[in-house]
Amino acid sequence: MIQVIELKKQYKEAVVLDVEGLTIPQGECFGLVGNNGAGKTTLFRIMLDLVRATSGEVRMHDLNVAKHEEWKGKVGAFLDEHMLLSYLTADEYFETLRKIHKLSDADMQDHLAKFEELFNDEIVGKKKYIRDLSKGNLKKVGIAAAMIGNPEVVYLDEPFENLDPSSQVKLKKFILQEKERSNTTFLISSHDLNHVTEICDRIVLLEKGKIIKDLQEKEQMLEELNTYFGT
Ligand SMILES: Nc1ncnc2c1ncn2[C@@H]1O[C@H](COP(=O)(O)OP(=O)(O)OP(=O)(O)O)[C@@H](O)[C@H]1O
Fold it and tell me: Of 32, 44, 99, 212, which has the highest C-beta tally within 10 A?
């Protein structure tokens, strides 16, 4: 379980995040939506201790993520390309992560096999540096890397952005299968209301740093969001 408690982030006078409370149970597929600048990435970055909150805290299994390290072995994330080692090829990068996660070659092969359809023969064995991959393929590498070692919790910032239409469908299918198979908690931010409502059990709408909707009724999510965004 992840808890966000009275979390505030301020840059000078500007309060960019102000979340009173949020509890995300294990196994939930949690969607985060909001206009540009609403605070979605900032929230994820604080939850991953990449940015420090001005006040408040985030707890995973009851431990403050800014003060403990144990949670790091249970969490995978892909927020942006800065999280990758772009001077490596995809194969070299996966091999580096295999060693870090202490997986066998066979386990790594099994992991990558799950992404075969999504990779579409563009990534593994291609000898291309990550820095030279297309934006969509780079995203696929990041998502596959985030999920190495079967983390309990996976954070994905705009995972559908830059993916071609068939890859978007494959990724949705993959997340739904993974959720079913392993009870992974997914936290997904997205501007794609159709995709996020299709895969998520719950959608939180952020506006100017505040939660203004917490939607948990699957049938009404899309309609409520379309009304809010005027789409
Ligand atoms: N280092 C920083 N210094 C000052 N302001 C910042 C900094 N980082 C983020 N912000 C501000 O915080 C606010 C929230 O930004 P954030 O990137 O979290 O929004 P977002 O919801 O992810 O937006 P988008 O949908 O455009 O990706 C914005 O107003 C942004 O300008």
Answer: 32
